[in-house]
Design brief:
The protein contains 21 helices and 15 strands. With about 575 residues, it is α+β, with helices and mostly antiparallel strands. Strand 13 and strand 14 form a beta hairpin. The longest helix has about 30 residues.
Length: about 575
């Protein structure tokens, strides 16, 4: 028994299966995560190393070159680029496409750990990180206050940052522009030379006096008591009274050879929020979290922080969730407009309310069923998946139009009843619409096998379009014949506004038909001219190709303006800040 016959003979079963698919798709839609683009993880690792006080030349010779030699032995490395600056080294390693980045990261880390002895002793341990678009901050929170910079940093670190980090779906919250407290010992060079003291001796004395060590345990009654020898500095006076050496039987203390100050670290970055000094918190989401939902929770937490800490002013410097929400809303609106316009075009050509309703069922049914596939494959609701739906809206009704037209023709030309016309009409064109759908699918299916970033982006689009077209094909061979057997009976509507619209569309359709017929006759009379004109247009179009620009992604308006300035290398931060404020 073929599909159209089974659907027409069992309308309740067909309706229930369709409703089941629609319900599953609706539930899947409510649980879909929303993001701007599919998750893109490039086969790229970055090895970052810090070596305080080292010049770029020293970083290049002692750190960067050593790491490059070590990493080059890891299997799958395709290209390496490096940057050496004052106190920092960054080596970017690109692997061949298809490399398991987790395994590659483990291999790179293991190689560096095995040969760590080749690097200087004072470096901060090299960090290996993956490049992942989803690891960028989704919300950047700007915080300003009238508090002292050190006091503000401590408040943010102790109270505010943990609140953002505890939000469901947040991976971490990083602080930018913080100013930390620093106890500075400023030596008097003349006194140090007069007492013949070595810097290493002074450093060791301070380090050894600032300890908190375990001292074992003792048994006291029925308890084991853990002992510690606390000797950490609790005030500046304790630092000043620390002995560093003995001269002529007298102790030499830090206070005699240096000035001890409670100050802040040297600033290398300055953040201003609405003209006032402050800092920023970059909130990153977990890999499988919903960007829009997490950003909404972050904004709610910002409002709660402002209520709890009136001395703080919080603003959203950048909000990826808002941009995603607007972008997805625009694409969703386009899908709805496209579906509505498709229905209007169908109504214009079919000129029957019943026929239009029968075919229009294919659009929402196919779209909602596709949501179940998106959820099942672990995809997100992004520009590519929604773009696939928008692109396929017009094609979703092609098969249904062919089926309905053939059913209607058999009813008009023969003596068949509604059910027979529906079954035979759908069965007659079944092979043709299957072949038509397959020819459309083979255009998109090769995109699944494209490698690289383009393959990641367009794979979801291709799969969504393919599945939506398959769903529309099944609808045209099952639901459409079933509905045609029930809804196509009766006369055309000729009364009221609907009747007048149908009459107007009849006249417009006839005029268009006559214009097309006249144009076709003119083309057939001037065959060679038409062929030459088509060839000239084709050749002329090819000449325009060099003038068409290329870029990876189309430009987008995120509602932000970013100004980047650059000053001479070595310019003091205060001068850079002054120039930035002028800008």
């Amino acid at each position: 028994m073929n599909l159209p016959r089974a659907s027409v003979r069992r309308p309740i079963f067909t309706t229930m299966v369709t409703l089941i698919v629609v319900v599953i798709g609706g539930v899947a839609l409510s649980r879909l995560r929303t993001d701007l683009l599919p998750s893109v993880e490039l086969p790229t690792l970055t090895v970052r190393t810090e070596y305080q006080g080292a010049s770029p030349e020293v970083m290049e010779r002692l750190v960067t070159q050593v790491i490059e030699e070590l990493v080059a032995t890891v299997p799958g490395v395709e290209e390496m680029t490096s940057t050496s600056s004052e106190g920092r080294s960054s080596v970017r390693v690109q692997f061949v496409w298809g490399t398991d980045l987790d395994v590659a990261a483990q291999d790179v880390q293991a190689m560096i750990d095995d040969e760590i002895g080749e690097l200087p002793d004072d470096i901060i341990r090299p960090r290996v990180s993956k490049f992942d678009i989803s690891s960028f901050p989704i919300v950047i929170v700007g915080i300003s206050s009238g508090l002292d910079s050190i006091e503000l940093t401590e408040l943010i670190n102790r109270k505010i940052r943990p609140r953002f980090a505890r939000i469901p779906g947040v991976a971490n919250a990083d602080i930018w522009g913080e100013i930390k407290r620093e106890i500075r010992i400023e030596l008097d060079p003349e006194r140090v030379r007069a007492l013949d003291l070595q810097l290493d001796t002074i450093l060791d004395a301070v380090r050894d006096a600032n300890l908190d060590l375990p001292a074992g345990s003792i048994e006291r009654g029925q308890y084991d008591v853990i002992l510690r020898a606390p000797a950490e500095f609790e005030g500046l006076d304790q630092i000043r009274s620390t002995s560093v050496a003995t001269r002529a039987g007298a102790l030499v203390t830090i206070g005699q050879i240096a000035r001890v100050r409670d100050t802040s670290e040297r600033q290398t970055r300055l953040v201003r929020v609405n003209g006032r000094e402050g800092l920023r918190i970059g909130v990153r989401k977990e890999a499988d979290a919903n960007t829009v939902e997490v950003s909404r929770l972050v904004l709610e937490e910002m409002a709660a922080v402002e209520r709890d800490y009136p001395q703080l002013d919080l603003i959203s410097v950048a909000n990826q969730g808002d941009f995603i929400e607007r972008s997805i809303a625009n694409v969703t609106q386009s899908v709805l407009y496209g579906g509505g316009l498709a229905v209007l075009v169908l109504l214009f050509f079919l000129r029957r309310i019943g026929s239009t309703l029968v075919i229009s069922v294919a659009i929402p049914t196919s779209i909602v069923a596709t949501f179940a596939l998106i959820y099942g494959f672990g995809y997100t609701l992004n520009l590519m998946t929604l773009g696939g739906l928008a692109l396929g809206v017009g094609m979703m009704v092609d098969s249904s139009i062919v089926v309905l037209e053939n059913v209607f023709r058999r009813r008009q030309e023969g003596d068949e009843d509604d059910e027979t016309a529906a079954v035979e009409g759908a069965s007659e064109v079944g092979p043709a619409i299957v072949a038509s759908t397959i020819t459309t699918l083979v255009i998109f299916l090769p995109l699944i096998f494209v490698r690289g970033v383009s393959g990641i982006l367009f794979k979801e689009l291709a799969i969504v379009i393919a599945f939506a077209l398959v769903c529309s094909l099944l609808v045209s061979l099952s639901v459409v014949p079933m509905l045609a057997s029930k809804l196509l009976g009766g006369r055309r509507e000729r009364r009221g506004p609907i009747g007048r619209l149908i009459a107007a569309s009849d006249g417009a359709f006839r005029a268009m038909d006559e214009a097309y017929r006249d144009g076709l006759r003119a083309v057939l009379r001037l065959r060679w001219f038409v062929v030459l004109l088509g060839g000239a247009v084709f050749v002329g179009s090819l000449q325009l190709m060099p003038f068409i620009g290329t870029e990876f992604m189309p430009p987008s308006d995120e509602g932000e303006v970013r100004v980047t300035g650059e000053m001479e290398v070595g310019t003091r931060l205060g001068l850079v800040d002054r120039q930035t404020r002028r800008i």
